[in-house]
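User: Structure please.
Assistant: Input sequence and predicted structure:
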Amino acid sequence: MDRDETFERGLAIRKEMFGALTEEHLRNADDFMRDLQDMVTTYCFGEVWGREGLGRNIRSMLTISLLAAQGRPEELKWHVKGALANGVTQDEIKEVFLHTAVYAGIPAGVAAFFAAREVLAEEAAE
């Protein structure tokens, strides 16, 4: 698969997970940010998320756990939205963060719950 095909596959996955926000990020990418958006679309989503070895729901659960463990609340919020789009349930998200709290620390788990609760409230309001 060539680079353009990988980009297009990554773009499709990003749109399925994050909707119009993907187009907004790409449209608003200036000369400074354009290469980063290209890398995220091609490498993260086209090459890694596009692999068949794991389903997107499992990739989402791994991703939100890792982001919680790293203390990355802004990225975590995005990926909670993506997890919901990938079929991860609210109960599964809760279980992921309980499990994460055991292995990454209670503060990381608490922060993840607060970030996810904010996203879940936004989603319920829509």
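Helices lie at 3-18, 20-27, 34-49, 56-70, 73-85, 90-104, 106-125.
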